[in-house]
Design goal:
Elements: H1 2-11, H2 17-20, H3 22-40, H4 49-59, H5 66-82, H6 87-91, H7 116-128, H8 132-148, H9 161-174, H10 178-191, H11 196-210, H12 231-239, H13 271-277, E1 283-286, E2 298-304, E3 309-313, H14 318-328, E4 333-334, E5 337-339, E6 342-344, E7 349-350, E8 352-356, H15 362-375, E9 387-392, E10 397-401, E11 420-427, E12 431-434, E13 437-439, E14 444-446, E15 453-457, E16 471-473, E17 476-479, E18 481-489
Antiparallel strand pairs: 1-2, 2-3, 3-15, 4-8, 5-6, 7-10, 8-9, 9-18, 10-16, 11-15, 11-18, 12-17, 13-14, 13-16
Helix pairs in contact: 3-5, 5-7, 7-8, 8-9, 9-10, 10-11
């Protein structure tokens, strides 16, 4: 118990850093789900056993479950993939690009290393799903640490060097590297020579090599479980430095003459795009012809022309943001996505969300009026959906998707108010790294800017969906990301955003 307490105390010298650092977050979930019960029921806990068991039972229902722990492990693998992180670096608490000398993507104030048991659990989550690309990388690190500490075993751990060798050997066998699988299995038998299953495996591997079975030399390919078609572009946008430094650190300034632009564009346009779009980008104070915004105009930054994307700085206050998060907190549930005519959970969207009516609190009502004034659209039900508050925690993300429906069978049409015309997304918090909003076809990455609102049109004036609005929420690398979404539908906006003269517009 003393050792467990010292470990917890060392990891949480700064209580506020627990959620920010993904390695700390994973360690916390694992200790609460796995390590702590192992301590409670260990042979060492002989004194006051009944008191420990009773106290544990009282809080057991509130502790993370197996789904939470496995989800945290998958989140670390997601961060590894999207941000091209070195597993060895992550094991040592460093968030460094694999095979790169570039500065780390995130430098926590307190470096946290993962234990051999931690690394084994991440590798086993991949192993159990047949993902040997990830299991090999994480189990290799686990085996290395277990070798260094062999002979010392902690009661809170569930795995050992033998477990790691066993899983790693079979991973290499499934990857086609039979000779290495044989080497690891022989090492296993050095520690546990009576294991009949591994003895049979060794004989099998030796026979395969004797018969001339070729050992694979091709590197394992990373699985694409969600069949993401734009994975390379998506990950490149998420890795952009501009997508990891919030513009809140860059002074916002309105620009009366366009020739004196001091408002930095976030995209990396080609020379042709620069000639076409750059003269129209800039910052300005906007009232949109609304008396509501006359005394306090919106601070507009025009981010992109096609698709139309604008960022409104200081759109809400800190007090308003905290109020909305507090209202939504008790109602948060795992986010779902539209799939055909149903809504269901999916690995390509990892977050929790809740819906708030404008009657939930005066702050929500005020925010609704402000969005209506800013957009010039009718936000009364059923012309707009309720405010959706979303929390993206450890590795939380949403892979490339459209906000508007691409099929008439979509659940979005149940409101009988047409398709989603426009989106207002408000950043309720800041993050230390990651979490950008990436517009894939527009080659645009917008970082998280606390208290700012991002606006874009989902549909063209002729009612067709704008394919350039394909966007994604990049995984949160460090921090806790909160956003509030307002989706505005077609009906009720006929005279506020009328059709154009050109049918193609």
């Amino acid at each position: 118990l003393c050792r467990f307490y010292e470990k917890v105390q060392a990891l949480h010298q700064d209580p506020e850093a627990s959620v920010d650092n993904p390695l700390l977050a994973f360690s916390l979930i694992k200790r609460l789900h796995s390590d702590w019960p192992n301590v409670i029921y260990s042979d060492e806990a002989t004194e006051n056993t009944q008191a420990l068991h009773d106290a544990f039972k009282e809080v057991e229902q509130e502790l993370p479950g197996a789904e939470d722990l496995d989800g945290a492990a998958r989140a670390l693998m997601r961060l590894q993939d999207v941000y091209a992180l070195s597993v060895k670096g992550m094991a040592n608490g460093v968030f460094q690009h694999a095979g790169s000398s570039r500065p780390p993507l995130y430098s926590p104030g307190q470096r946290v290393s993962l234990s051999a048991d931690d690394l084994f659990h991440v590798g086993k989550v991949a192993y159990d799903t047949g993902d040997y690309y990830h299991s090999i990388a994480w189990l290799e690190e686990a085996v290395g640490l277990f070798r260094l500490s062999y002979g010392s075993w902690n009661p809170e751990d569930r795995s050992s060097l033998e477990d790691a060798l066993d899983h790693l050997a079979f991973s290499y066998f499934m990857a086609g590297n039979i000779s290495h699988a044989l080497s690891l299995s022989r090492e296993f038998l050095h520690y546990d020579p009576s294991n009949r299953r591994v003895v049979r495996n060794v004989a099998k591997y030796e026979k395969l090599l004797e018969t001339g079975t070729v050992t694979s030399t091709e590197p394992l390919r990373r699985p694409n479980s969600t069949r993401l078609q734009n994975r390379d572009a998506y990950e490149e946008l998420c890795q952009r430095p501009g997508g990891q430094v919030g513009l809140a650190r860059v002074p916002w300034s309105p620009t009366p003459p366009l020739s004196t632009l001091s408002c930095p564009p976030w995209s990396s346009p080609s020379p042709q795009q620069a000639l076409e779009h750059l003269p129209q980008l800039g910052c300005s104070y906007e009232t949109n012809g609304s008396p509501y915004l006359l005394l306090q105009p919106a601070k507009k930054e025009m981010v992109q022309i096609r698709p139309y994307v604008a960022l409104y700085h200081d759109f809400i206050s800190d007090v308003e943001a905290e109020t909305i998060k507090g209202l939504a907190g008790p109602w948060l549930q795992r986010s779902v996505v539209a799939s055909g005519e149903k809504q269901q959970k999916a690995e390509y969207r990892i977050s929790k969300s809740a819906w708030l009516k404008d009657t939930a609190h005066p702050v929500v009502q005020t925010l609704e009026k402000r969005m209506a004034a800013l957009t010039g659209l009718d936000l009364r039900p059923p012309y707009a959906e309720y405010l959706q508050v979303v929390n993206y925690g450890l590795g939380g993300h949403y892979e490339p998707h459209f906000d508007h429906a691409t099929s008439r069978k979509s659940p979005l049409y149940r409101m009988k108010s047409g398709n989603r015309l426009a989106t207002v997304m408000i950043y309720l918090s800041a993050v230390e790294a990651g979490g950008s909003t990436a517009f894939i076809h527009a080659n645009l990455s917008v970082p998280v800017v606390k208290n700012a609102a991002l606006f874009w049109w989902n549909l063209r004036r002729n009612g067709d969906g704008d394919g350039d609005t394909l966007h994604a929420g990049c995984p949160v690398l460090a921090g806790d990301k909160w956003v509030a979404n307002k989706w505005i539908h077609e009906h009720g906006q006929e005279f506020r955003r009328p059709c154009g003269i050109d049918p193609q517009d």
